[in-house]
Request: fold
Amino acid sequence: MILAHSPIVQLGIRAASPLAIMVGVYLLFAGHNNPGGGFAAGLVFGAVVTLRTIAGIQRPTHAIQIIAAGMAVVVLTAAAPLLWGDVLLDQKVLSFKVPLLGTIKTGSALPFDIGVTAIVVGLVLSLLDGLSATSLTNSPAETEIPS
Amino acid sequence: MIWVFLIAHVAGVGCAAVAGRSGIRTALGVAAIAPTLTAMWAGVSMASGAPPTTSTFPWVDGLGLAFRFRTDALAMMMTLLVCGIGVLVFVYAIGYFAPNAGGASRFPASLLAFSTSMLGLVWADSAWTLFIFWELTSITSFLLVGHNNTDAAVRIAARRALMITGGGGLALLAGLLLLENEAGTSTLTDLTPVQGSAANVAAVLVLIGAATKSAQVPFHVWLPGAMAAPTPVSAYLHSATMVKAGVLLIAVTGPAFTGLAVWKAVGLTFGIASMLWGAVGALRHRDAKLILAWGTVSQLGLLVTLLSLGTAKSIFAAVSILFAHALFKAALFAVVGEIDIRTGTRDITELGGLHRTMPIAFAVAVAAGMSMAGVPPLLGFAAKEAAIEAVLGLSGFDAVVGATAVIFGSVLTVAYTTRFLITVFGPGPTTKVAPRRIAMTIPAVMLAGAGVLGFIAMGTVNAIVRPAAIELNPKAEVYELLRWPGITTGLLTSLGIVAVGLALGAAIARRATPRIPAPVGADGADAAIDGVLKFAPRLTGRVQHGSLPVYLVTMAGVATLAALPLALDGSTDHLVAWDHPLQALLALVIVASAIAGAFVGSRLGAALTLGAIGTAMSGVFVLHGAPDLALTQLLVETVIVVGFVIGLGHLARRFPEVENTWRLTRLVVSGLGGLIIMAALAAAGADPSGTPPVGDLTAGAVEVGGGKNVVNVILTDLRGLDTLGEVVVLAVVAVGILALGSTTAREEVQ
Reply:
């Protein structure tokens, strides 16, 4: 594929990745009060991984581990309220003061969202893996320019 | 107390599995602990006359489901049999298996798991508790019958047993549902007589369930096959437990069904057919264990017959025979297992002279066999006497059918018992025997001894059996087992039965059995199971042929049909051209992209048109004031288009040519689908159902979910369970993709 052999594309994707990840993190935290949320954040991270994969910068690995971690976080967050007698998925709101940043208000929805993000990223990774995305970047037969 | 013993049993299963590492005998010893304690508790509480207890554990409150147990007299009698004989079987198995036998972790744990299921079944006081343990006995007995899993014939026999008893379980499930609906309760001890056509259907279904478990003709074909199991399993499953489950079911549901003609007719048909055909089978076979197995079919037929007759006396007789049968049949199986181990054969034409070389086994077999034949001074005599009295006391049609069948069946029982004893132990070329295994002898002696002791201490047996019968029919309290009934018609009949049976058995005992009867029924059952297994992939091949376009057309077609009723009603008055002029522009982009996507020849082009549609859709969401939806849509489109491009790298660049008819089909389905769904959406807007809950949700979002973004609060809090379910689906999909086409997996293979 052309992307793997274009320094412009490679460099561009390398430079854009941190910015895109910041957007993703913003969406994750903003989701509580503004548009965004775990699913959107996961898709942004997924897009980053996808671009980096087809540019030949990285390989889609550890999908299972990321999905497992996401599932664990989601299930634990959902089940934790049961321990102190509340219903499943009961929401706990926390707010505390941090120097420089002011009052931070968050809740148990945040870890839940983080888990969702991880699962979405894992899904994208496994899609890339399942579609053998890396073989496209490496195979010389595929390097011809599509007409 | 019920919970303590159930938990002890379950814990015992785990311990036995672990103890299996140090050999099968240790594991069997460990597994025997819980039944020993339970049997002791049952004995003590029966002796002290403890009042019946019940125990309830709510399970699904909303559906009124609860685990409900009771320890009335019937349950305690069954406990004594299940656990008492269970302990003896565990001891017997210690002798039966070589110390280094395989399956050391599996066998003792499975046997105890079966015993646990059986205990739950006899204690169950709710139809659903009973059903759960009923199914558990099917599964655990499958493991036990298929213990020698390297033998194909054993696996087939185990599968047959599972399919027949499992199929009966389905009938039972339907029957119990109807019964609960008709009787208004699932509590077995609260059942009241039911009437009507639904009750009749329920009665037949419950009887079919019972007949499969209790090996009634024509469902009996699994039982002879189940003799492929190790003999301790046969001694346990086919004397006191598994096969008695069906009889117990008929007994406990009897109070609801006894008034129904169909209950009696179907029950009597099953019972009499099994009693006679089982006895004929026992006379035809050459394998000593199969003779006992067919004898069990016959005895179970007698029990079902007596229960179906439904009089207080016949129920009392059935409970008595159930008790006696558990003892003598377990003893006989134990003897046959010992003969098998010590001589290496169970074929009665090869056996002979064992009364000299195996005197203890001979004594046990004679005592147990006489009990089975109903000869004094043994417990079986008193029980059989009660049965004869019960059928002679009937009147009308019942008397003719019941008495004839029971008397004829009893003659055949005496005959096959005589044949069994003469051919195995009687004169003939003496078979060589290996040394005695004491662990096999003791349980056999105790089981046969119980039959003798039961006759001597008839009062104790009455104290166990009578209250159990009274649980089923309060009028049974006037009856009791007698050592000596006096010179009555019943006794004379019994004597006649024994005399004719002895003569018949002795006459045919040494007659050459030219050929072993072919297992026609079993082969038929296997052929049916194989047929289903062959038919299923063919059907799946038809329905799931793997063509994605066909799946898509099918799905679109079904969706169109589903939307059709919605599309047909509804007005168009509420429709406006647009809320905002930009909507028209976006609609134009969407329609143009859709048309282009349908006609473009290159796959990449098609993927890009889809991306254009999606992106324009997110613009529509923005115009409708749904930024969250728009954001998600945009991101999904981005990732999907890149995914498409990657996927297309593996495919030909252009779409393949298709036949015209297929192209036309797709065109019609998608065109109609688009139109009808459009009409349905337009109609849906005309008649919104109620006020949208937006106001409440917005107000509640901050308060309940602590966030201002209503969509996110819904996702993570108000409808968090849905989200949880959705992410589980995502995770499963991801794992599925990895399993199907993981490059890492492929690299590892290479």
